């Protein structure tokens, strides 16, 4: 039982000030003051709050699920809400020192001008409107795939429900893709499609909610991490066991640190699983094969279920870096490691395709206890099925045009254009940040983000304290208000005490990115000068 | 705290027989024997179970989330799994007394031969592949809507994330639709789009997980009910408070029964909300305005949050029946009722469109405490956004062609064809069932299902007991194995002790439905004769 679940005795339906209540709850559970302050952005107005809490309500702030109260999702937090407000102000003609908001807070490729892959979109148009199968402007390989997928849909329509783990033929295509990627067999029945990787991740983590020997469950996650994990653990009342990535070793995983984290945690909870994000989000590292082997051995020794977040497997840029899946490494390590339980997640939102809005994703569950798997499949069945069009995007990703097919040339051209450009942008961002005073930024070997460390001057620390904000949040708000650039402060992902970071995507198109970095530099220099003492 | 959450002391990682363990757990928590037996269908093989439980596992059946173990979703249960197996056997040439499985278990319109609405599919094709905006074969009203929606997508692409509650312009269209429907204002900021109504329903129910005065939360649901509710409550550890619908009054809601249910429940839990499904699933009734008023007064007196599942609002067939939304009735009742908290759910899966696979849905949250609403929006933000194409289907549903637009004629023709045919089928099913020996079937006033009561003869009750099945499950399995017709036994929805029902959809196309009913009748007569003593 997480401490938040034991809130009930504190709850008082007669409390007439929800905001103060929130403060109290926040303080109870060690939330930073900042988070409480941020809350104000989420409410439409203080008067609405007061009004709301005076009438008898079935669902008041006091009687709201306490896990929902404490969960956070920084990528869409108060800073991003403020960015939206600024956009509306600009539309209304409010004068600002900039003309537009640059949303570098979220890995949203198409929003930043990346063009869709024609092959994927043609597949979608044809499955949605099969009349177009008779249209000679669409290539035969697209039509062939569309026919295959529609045969797998009941009634030949994408409007019918699929099996809960997805359309069989698409699950088979995913398994074939994994087999080609890893050189090891993959069983299509181990593939479960989801509405995006997030959906699949939550559905697997949910299985772990169970007290063992009266101890609450815990899941190890990297710090810094992608906040889906902290949010999901908070929602599920699972204890977050943070292990720090080693910034001095390009955000690699240090086994001693893993050991420290799990040993500390065992005093308070039952560690059940470890999450590894590779390539890293927000940190952009690509793990070496050796590092992965060490992590697998560690997980084996500690009897941990492995969750490998591998959604950036197509996004590897750095010379000498290569993506190794946990499955491949585990299989090649042989007994007993090749019998370990693993869930590996993939998405159609990232990579070269960047189809975030279409919500395609899958998980491969390896060596899962068959009874557990049966229960898992039962649990997802109540949600019927993941979006069929999302499933079809995933199909297009794992079963792309082959060299002898008509769509191949254009597909390869578009794919390479995106990945080559991302590679250049990854280098540009790192190189530029490393020229800023007080910045140090590890190479972006993969994924879509840079996570530089910023030394903030004493004046900034004081000003932040005065504004009741943590220094990185203060910095990010100043940046937003002065330049329109929206980034996410490091505290949203976690960082070592006393260090300050932020995450920016590398997604603005090259010209825009250049402009953004110039504005950023000018802002930073001013900021440093203003707050240097 | 639900009892299932207190399992931990029972859990023993060294248990070497998961299946027996399951039996024990099942018995502990009063599961029917049937359910435990059914579980065998879910596991690939008994040997796999034994093998799996002998090695050290991070996630074993014993350490699996206990709420997941007890949740059930009958619409996709063992009977449906068996139906899938039979389909594969038929494909392989195994001889059966029938040629195909008729899936009357699930409201999956397109799977049963219903054709998609052209207007909806054209919109989808064009948003996915905007090149087609230049194609003169697509009507201008479709193009106009596509341009509007794409303007609302960041970067003009459906591949970008939207705001977590959905695209603003679509939320506005939904609000306008509600306003036209009810004749009362609807605020677009109260509209939250979801990946299907199921997603929206779970996200709202989740808010209610909170112990109050050390009592666990409870939610009132109808019996019979749609099993998404029982499954969701089980998953969340919320106590299910069943209130029986009155079969003798065409499945209406009897306020005395509501009062009985809530009074009983208050001894054990804190009732927080009431779910009403109108038109009814699985029961097909359409509530009268008076009945809705009474329910609203009851909810007011008991301080309950109202969840109105109104996904079948377009599916009303019976003469004299009309759909009234809870919102409309509540608003017209005036103070204090018009200030009550309500969530009303809608979907693009049902109605005349039947686009189940595309996962479009929305909830209108009325009078929700603004702080609670802020937390709700925060909670959904970690899942980023509902599928954009599902959002766009919802847009097409709430903003259909107007009389002066080019798509209107075809749209109306297709829409009426579906609804008129469903009306005929609703009548045909009820009329036919009422001619069967021992059957009584209320009229299907709305939705897509009939839920007849069947008096089973003593021999059948004994045979079921011998087969370790409940009689309705026994009947449904016999029907499936002998005719290929797949229905869902009443126990999956709940029914009064000692009565037996099943749910069948009215979705097979008319010719097929006629054939199905003939086969059904022949089977039933044989069954009755075989088991009469």
CATH architecture of the largest domain in chain A: 3-Layer(aba) Sandwich
The major sheet of chain A is characterized as: 7 strands, mixed
Strand order of the largest sheet of chain A: 2-8-7-6-5-3-4
Number of helices of chain A: 19
CATH topology of the largest domain in chain A: Aspartate Aminotransferase, domain 2
Structural class of chain A: alpha/beta
Distance between the termini of chain A: 47 Å
Poorly predicted runs of 5 or more residues of chain A: 1-54
Domain module count of chain A: 3
Report the CATH superfamily of the largest domain in chain A: Type I PLP-dependent aspartate aminotransferase-like (Major domain)
Largest interface: A-B, 123 and 122 residues
Overall geometry of chain A comes to globular
How would you characterize this protein structure?
The structure is a homodimer. Chain A has three domains: about 5-70, no CATH class; about 75-110 and about 415-530, Aspartate Aminotransferase, domain 1 (Alpha-Beta Complex), CATH 3.90.1150; about 165-385, Aspartate Aminotransferase, domain 2. A seven-stranded mixed β-sheet of chain A has the order 2-8-7-6-5-3-4, sandwiched between helices. In chain A, helix 6 (about 120-130) packs across helix 7 and helix 17 packs across helix 18 (about 470-485). Chain A is globular and about 70 Å long. The longest helix of chain A is centred in the last third of the chain and has 26 residues, at about 410-435. Chain A starts with 17 loop residues before the first helix and ends with a helix. The first copy, chain A, has about 525 residues and is of the alpha/beta class. Chain A has helices at about 20-30, 35-40, 45-55, 65-70, 80-90, 120-130, 140-150, 170-180, 195-205, 225-235, 255-265, 290-300, 325-330, 370-380, 390-400, 410-435, 460-465, 470-485, 510-530; strands spanning about 100-105, 190-195, 215-225, 240-245, 270-275, 305-310, 340-345, 360-365, 440, 450, 455, 485, 490, 500-505. Residues about 1-55 of chain A have low confidence and may be disordered. Chain A is about 45% helix and about 10% strand. Chains A and B meet through helix 1, helix 3, helix 4, helix 6 and helix 9 of A and helix 1, helix 3, helix 4, helix 6 and helix 9 of B. Chains A, B: InterPro entries: ALAT1/2-like, Aminotransferase_I/II_large, PyrdxlP-dep_Trfase, PyrdxlP-dep_Trfase_major, PyrdxlP-dep_Trfase_small. Chains A, B: Pfam families: Aminotran_1_2. Chains A, B: Pathway: Amino-acid degradation; L-alanine degradation via transaminase pathway; pyruvate from L-alanine: step 1/1. Chains A, B: Its cofactor is pyridoxal 5'-phosphate. Chains A, B: Belongs to the class-I pyridoxal-phosphate-dependent aminotransferase family. Alanine aminotransferase subfamily.
